[in-house]
Amino acid sequence: MTYAEPPLREPDLPRTAKVRPTALRTGWTTGACATAAAKAAVTALVTGEPQTDVEIGLPAGRRVGFAVARCDLEQGGPAEAVVVKDAGDDPDVTHGAHLTATVGWRDDPGLDLDGGPGVGTVTRPGLGLPVGGPAINETPRRMIAAAVAEVVDLAEVGVRVVISVPGGEVMARKTTNRRLGILGGISILGTTGIVRPFSTASWRASVVQAVHVMAAQGERTTVLCTGGRTERAARALLPELPEVCFVEVGDFTGAAVTAAVADGQTAVVFVGMAGKLAKLAAGILMTHYTRSTVDLSLLGAVTAEAGGPPELVAEVAAANTGRHAYELWEAAGLLAPAGDLLCRRVRQVLRRFAGHRLTVDVAMVDFAGSRVVASSGRWTA
User: Fold this and answer.
1) Which helix (H) or strand (E) holds 315?
2) Where are the beta strands (DSSP E) in the chain?
3) What is the pLDDT of residues 296-332, one digit of tens each?
4) Is the peptide bond before 78 cis (omega within 30 degrees of 0)?
5) Mean per-residue pLDDT over the chain, rounded
6) Which among 260, 122, 94 has a CA at the least distance from the CA of 178?
7) Confidence category of residue 91, pLDDT binned at 50, 70, 90
């Protein structure tokens, strides 16, 4: 059985989508909520009246309204307003967070924006933000400045805005902030102001950002892992590398490799399980289950090349999943040779995708992530 070299595929967006019985509800980014809270607080400061609702502009020009959960005003300032984040139907760890803006006057004209408790502090370069400053990204900064400028003339008066998030330190434990060098809380994020449910765009962006941060530390080896179990295995394989080198890539291998090439990386290591490796070996660089399937004919070809008998080749080619094929190899005592061949195919695909500007090593781990069962040659099972 022969198998032709596959074309490389990394579709940007799905052309079709499964029809859902009910449309998923969009939500608001932390940046949009912080902007709304800031505008409510500065409006209260100017008018002397607590605000119950507020309207802001999104980057695309749309105007949207927010309910103000709390708005307090001390005599002479400062004013404080809270907007509760609604992430819609997105499984966002910051859903329900109380984005809080504390606003007061300052002597010099212009806006002074800072982070308070629950907003992370940037400790590493590579994020496009000043080291030592708050983790408030560029788009939310612009949104907050524009919203405040709708209330006061910043060329004439000075305003200090402090964004805080009660409980943000705990929320941040469920994010990649610490690895990126953002300590003490969450990031104030958003490029559109809108959270799209189950957004692949945001995950892809976080993968690319993680590669950029690693490169900014002077590291030149990117280790791509598909999830927590494969990351544990990868870190056991490469204990000499710092934590920042390990990127949980999920389904966005192509985006990560492209970023590694752009950042001048010299090496990529991919650690994964059978299903993802089978998709990559077929030239599919975006491996989400809704966008691609395991090419079982490829796994049948690998089985034959590894010396499997015709009946095993047929069984693998008719397997239910990549994991099923793995189990068939394991039961036949063919896991190591077939797995090694699969890893070598993945290495060829990734090197070709990178324009041969990176060295590539690939390792397959078991489904517990506890041991390496095959590799492209660097490790032995």
Assistant:
1) helix 310-317
2) 27-28, 53-57, 63-67, 70-73, 79-84, 98-106, 110-115, 118-119, 121-122, 158-164, 182-183, 185-186, 194-195, 221-225, 246-248, 267-272, 359-365, 372-375
3) 889 999 999 999 999 999 999 988 778 889 999 999 9
4) yes
5) 88
6) 122
7) low
Amino acid at 207: V
In what order do the strands lie in the sheet containing 158-164?
70-73, 79-84, 98-106, 158-164, 110-115
- Which is it for strands 118-119 and 185-186: parallel, antiparallel or unpaired? parallel
Query: Facing residues of 111 across strands?
Result: 159
**Residue 132: Cβ within 10 Å count:** 8
C-alpha triplet 234, 325, 253: angle, nearest 5°: 40
- What is the model's pTM? 0.64
List the domain boundaries for the chain. Answer: 27-195, 200-375
* 344-357 pLDDT, tens digit each: 999 999 999 999 99
* Tokens read off for 96: 């329900």
**Tokens 């941040």 identify what position?**
172
CATH of domain 27-195: 3.30.2110.10
CA–CA separation, 210 vs 245, rounded Å? Answer: 9
Tokens 């990529």, residue located: 268
Q: Does position 183 have pLDDT exceeding 80, yes or no?
A: yes
**Which amino acid appears at position 42 of this protein?**
V
Q: What is the dihedral of CA 23, 27, 29, 33, to 10 degrees?
A: 170
Of 97, 124, 346, 123, nearest to 217 by C-alpha is 124
pLDDT range class, residue 284, cuts 50, 70, 90 = confident
Q: Say which residues have a Cβ less than 8 Å from residue 309's Cβ, sequence separation at least 6.
A: none
- Cβ-contact 279, 350 below 8 angstroms: no
Q: Which residue is associated with the tokens 């964004």? A: 163
| Cα–Cα distance measured from residue 244 to residue 216, given in angstroms and rounded to the nearest whole number | 10
DSSP 98-135: EEEEEEEEESSSEEEEEE-TEE-EE-SSSSSS-TTSB-
H or E element at residue 56: strand 53-57
Average pLDDT over residues 145-150: 97
Using CB atoms within 10 Å of the CB of residue 319, give its burial: 0 to 12 exposed, 13 to 18 middle, 19+ buried.
buried
What number of CA atoms fall less than 13 Å from residue 121's CA on the CB side?
7
* Lookup result for tokens 């803006």: 101
